Every structure is written in structure tokens, then in C-alpha cells.
């Protein structure tokens, strides 16, 4: 086990203690712990970081609380279009999918792209054809992903847009979590072989249209892994994560300036990304099992688990 | 004018003098010069680098010799799906489109995304709906982009695949230019205000399927610009350009390690990208008007033009 460790996030945003009931808080903490444990059990059993991050992300895709898989947000047209990406730090291989509609576990398809396709990123119908050609079953109907909670978020967004026709032309950083347009899930891990991996999956933005693709399937933006430096999964306003190349930038600061994981993650999230106008956070891990989870907004669903079984869970900004 | 300068590429690959007729070589050189001049005239008249890179790229999109716009390669299904990206080094704003089918000038739509959309990357039908909603006319039929030359490339690829069913599951680095699956056009410029910009446009890969998206619309992979460092447009095997974060990596080496433009471009293209298994090249420019155009394959259609009107054009590897 040695330096094995895993960290996860379930999205970041304006998550306030005042808008959270004790029941809901508990449900989130249970969901985070289940996800962490799923990945940790694999690491503990001598499994790989690639398998561990998949297991943790799948657990959140299957949990309706998080914006990925079941519980994904609705698009403008009342459907779902999901993105996912996985990076293998040992080989620097990458697989990603964008705008898939009927794939039960987008992160599992991303891994299939990494393993079976010569390509890095497949989108839309073509990605689903690839899934089927490789023996993956699609859900019969998109309603598989529907939840009342997310439908209400779409109705809220559409109503807001009706009042203000320009509402959909702005990126919304300010909505409280109840009506947040964003959300992502992700995991980073290091295994006993010293290999790091990162995985991210998301339903994207509520009320999205025009084939918008966010940061999640963009290598170096929402997801990155390199054994030389670290593995990173980002969450927040995707357009700024892309412009800031947030995940790769943390790696570059470690490689080129010799910063530690925690220094590099802080510089990128709390300074560079923030100055660009971006709001969100990251989880990051290095080969030594160091973990950083900075965020520059009010909260981030997050958790980490070390080789000795120590668990840390968090939702709000507890940095005082 | 001071440090104004512009550089362009029209794709890289196994471009051999032995497989080029004098007529064809001349046609390419004329096309490169027309593209350079279109951008240069704008810079000379006090225009911006953003306008200059658009003008240069549009000239190549309209030229059937290059794999972008008219003359774009065919997909597996005999259609066209084009990608483009533009980065403004002054603001770090970005606009990109992926898999657009009926957009005459994908780079012009990418700029429209930068200017009019809150998003960074729009794909497929959604991107075209956005184009129409913003007053852009689409071509009535995809045949607008057809050329016999590219159709023969598709037929060649399909025939090859018939003989070897696994052919389409491999990335092809080795085909000579006649049958090359790849190709891209791009421009980088610095204007008299000291602002840099980068633009890239491509028809993608011949015989592509499964909604494959390459490096061109991926910020930091195929295209990047930041006044602090440089503007870059890459061409070559997209999957490796993405995995290597080629464009942003050049910028990061300048910012974090203090390398010059030419040192950084050489380290990334001739060492890191090459060691990853990638083949291709970049054009890069900084605020001082320095230009680097390294490539690690047999040739790259390329050219540069300085403030004093000095033109350099190249196709083959003339480095001896």
C-alpha cells in the first residue's frame, strides 16, 4: 500500500451551510464516502489507480445527488449530454467522450476510448456507435438519467431566461447550489506501483445548448495525469478552466518551476484561475500520495482517503 | 509597424521533394504567399493580429490545396466535418468549433463564438444553429467543399481498410503527402500594439468516424496565445498534439523556465512531442516578432513575413 491514496470531488460552487438541510448534508457525505471507499478498496487490494478512479467516479455517476450519470442536469431541450475524460499518468494515454446521450457510465466509455480507439476524443452519435461496436450497452431511454431535482433546475433556468432573454448568454457564477448550473465529479489516485490517474465525468450545464462542450473532456483543462508530476481533476466554470488550462498548468508549475503539489495547485486555483475570472476548484495528487484540494468558491464536495484508511470529507469552506 | 510579423502553416507530414511536381510545388508556394500577404496587408494598415490571422486562415480555407474549407478531407461517410479555433493573446479569450458540416469558413465561426457566445467550444448541429442565429449563412450543400483530390484520398483509405480491417484503428504517421490523412492550416501574428493571436482550421482526418475530434479546437493543444509568452498553431498527428499539450507547453516553458521562443518550440516539438511518438510541427511568434517554425517530420508547408516585407516560404526539410 505504501503511498496509496485517493481524492474525489463532487462539484464546486456556491455551496452554503445555510442552504443545506442536515439530511441533505448527510446524504452528500454518505455519497462521498461510498465513492472514496469504492476506489480505496481497489487500491488496498493491489489494484491500479486507473481502476480506482473509475470505481470512485462510477459510484458518483450512479448516485442521483451528483451531476453525472443518473442525476445529470438537463439540456435546454430537456435531454442529457454528458462528457468524461480519463488520463493515465504512467503512459500519458488519454480517453475522452463529449455530448454522449445514452451511455450509462460516460467515464467507462472514456476508458474504452483510451484502450480501444486510436483517438483521444469521440463525440456525440459517433461516440455511441463506437460504444456499441465495442459491446457496450446503451440505456434504452434518456429518462434513465432523469431526476426531479434536476428537472426543477431546468424549469428555473428556463423561467429566468423568459424574464431576461440574455440570461443564457451569460456564464452564471453566482447561483446558489440549489439552482446551480454546473457540477462535475472526479477522482485522482496513486497506487502501490507509484502510478497516478485522473478521471472526470459530468452532465455539463443546466439549460445548455448549441453543442456546448466544457472543460471535462479537454485534456489539460479539466483532467490531466503524468507520473512525473501529478494527477488533477477540476470542477467549476468550464470556460475559465479551459482558458486557464488549469489541470496541465499545475503539472507545468511542478515540472518547470519545481513547486510542490500544494504550492502549484494554490498558485493555479487561488491566483491564476481566480484572476482570469474563474470560480471552482481541483483535486490533485502526486506519486508520494500528497493531496491538494484548493477551491476559490464557497464550497466543494470533496474527500480523501490515505493508505492507513484515514478519511477526510468536506463540503463547505472551513478554512476560516 | 515596428515588430509586426506573421507566420503561417498549411499542414505537416511526409512531404517529399521526390513526390512533388514543379507545378504543384509552385501552386503551394503561391497559395502560401497569398495567405501571408492577406494577413500582412492588415498588419501593415494598422490592423490587429486577430484580423490578420483570420485573413490568412480564410485565404487557405478558400484554397482547395489545403485541408480546411474548400478542399477539406472527406469523412468515412463521404461528408466533411471541420474544426477551428482562435485565441486572442491580449485577453486570453478563445473561440472554437468542432465537427461543423456546412460552415463556409470555420475559423470565422470560431471568432463569432469568441465574440458572441459565453462558451468556448461549440460542436456539430448546435454550432451551426448558433451560426445561423448570429446571421451567418451556411453553404446549401456540403459538396461546396468537395475536391477530386480529396475524394481519391478517401477512396484510397477505404480500399486500404478493405484489405486490412484494422487499418482504421491505427493512427497513420507514414503515408506520403499524396494520401496523407491529415492536414491543417494556421496563422500566428503580432500587431503594432504588441498583441499576439493564433488561429487554426482543419478538415480533420480522411476517413474519420465516430465523431473523432482532434487537437485543433482544443485550447492549449492545437492553438494557444498569450501576450506574456507567444502565439502557437500546431499541425500533425492530433492525438499526440493533445496528449503533449503542445501549444500551451511552449508557452509554459517560456513563462516558467525563461526559455526563448525558439528554445521552447524546439524542446517541445523536437524533443517532448517526438519522444511521445508524435509527428508534426508548429508555427510560433512572440511580442517581439520572433518566429519559430520547427517540425519533426519530412516537411511542413510554411511561411513568414516580417514588418519590412521580407518573405520566407518553405515546404521541405531544408535543414540539411
Topology readout:
Two copies of one chain form a homodimer.
Chain A: E1 5-13, H1 22-44, H2 49-61, E2 82-88, E3 93-100, H3 106-116, E4 121-123, H4 124-133, H5 148-163, E5 185-190, E6 196-202, E7 212-213, E8 223-225, E9 231-236, H6 238-244, H7 246-257, H8 261-276, E10 280-285, E11 291-292, E12 299-306, E13 311-316
Parallel strand pairs in A: 3-4
Antiparallel strand pairs in A: 1-5, 1-12, 2-3, 2-6, 5-6, 8-9, 9-10, 10-11, 12-13
Walkthrough of the structure:
The structure is a homodimer of 320-residue chains. Chain A is of the alpha+beta class. Chain A has one domain (5-316): (Glycosyl)asparaginase (Glutamine Phosphoribosylpyrophosphate, subunit 1, domain 1, 4-Layer Sandwich). Helix content of chain A is 34%, strand content 23%. Chain A is built from 8 helices and 13 strands. In chain A, strands 4-3-2-6-5-1-12-13 form an 8-stranded mixed β-sheet. In chain A, a hairpin with a 4-residue loop joins strand 2 and strand 3 (93-100). In chain A, helix 1 (22-44) runs antiparallel to helix 2, helix 2 runs antiparallel to helix 3 and helix 6 packs across helix 8. Chain A is globular, with a radius of gyration of 18 Å. Residues 174-179 of chain A have low confidence and may be disordered. At the A-B interface, strand 3, strand 4, helix 4, strand 7 and helix 6 of A face strand 3, strand 4, helix 4, strand 7 and helix 6 of B.
Amino acid at each position: 500500500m505504501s503511498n496509496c491514496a485517493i481524492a474525489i470531488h463532487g462539484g464546486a460552487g456556491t455551496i452554503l451551510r445555510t442552504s443545506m438541510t442536515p439530511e441533505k448534508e448527510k446524504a452528500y457525505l454518505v455519497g462521498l464516502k461510498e465513492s472514496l471507499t469504492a476506489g480505496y478498496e481497489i487500491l488496498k487490494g493491489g489494484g491500479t489507480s486507473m481502476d480506482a478512479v473509475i470505481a470512485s467516479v462510477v459510484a458518483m455517476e450512479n448516485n442521483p445527488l451528483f451531476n453525472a450519470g443518473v442525476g445529470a442536469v438537463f439540456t435546454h431541450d430537456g435531454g442529457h449530454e454528458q462528457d468524461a475524460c480519463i488520463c493515465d499518468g504512467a503512459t500519458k494515454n488519454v480517453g475522452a467522450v463529449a455530448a454522449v446521450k445514452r451511455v450509462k457510465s460516460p467515464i467507462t466509455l472514456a476508458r474504452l476510448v483510451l484502450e480501444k480507439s486510436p483517438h483521444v476524443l469521440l463525440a456525440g452519435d459517433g461516440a455511441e456507435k463506437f460504444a456499441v461496436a465495442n459491446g457496450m450497452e446503451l440505456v434504452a431511454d434518456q429518462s434513465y438519467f432523469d431526476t426531479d431535482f434536476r428537472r426543477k433546475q431546468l424549469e428555473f433556468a428556463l423561467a429566468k431566461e423568459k424574464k431576461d432573454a440574455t440570461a443564457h448568454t451569460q456564464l452564471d457564477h453566482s447561483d446558489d447550489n440549489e439552482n446551480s448550473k454546473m457540477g462535475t465529479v472526479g477522482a485522482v489516485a496513486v497506487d502501490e506501483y507509484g502510478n497516478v490517474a485522473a478521471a472526470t465525468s459530468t452532465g455539463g450545464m443546466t439549460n445548455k445548448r448549441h453543442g456546448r462542450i466544457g472543460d471535462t473532456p479537454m485534456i489539460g483543462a479539466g483532467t490531466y495525469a503524468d507520473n512525473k508530476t501529478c494527477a488533477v481533476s477540476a470542477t467549476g466554470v468550464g470556460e475559465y478552466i479551459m482558458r486557464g488550462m488549469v489541470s496541465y498548468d499545475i503539472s507545468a508549475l511542478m515540472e518547470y518551476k519545481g513547486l510542490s503539489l500544494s504550492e502549484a495547485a494554490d498558485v493555479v486555483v487561488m491566483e491564476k484561475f481566480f484572476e482570469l475570472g474563474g470560480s471552482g476548484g481541483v483535486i490533485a495528487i502526486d506519486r508520494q500520495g500528497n493531496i491538494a484540494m484548493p477551491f476559490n468558491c464557497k464550497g466543494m464536495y470533496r474527500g480523501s482517503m490515505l493508505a492507513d484508511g484515514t478519511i477526510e470529507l468536506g463540503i463547505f469552506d472551513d478554512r476560516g
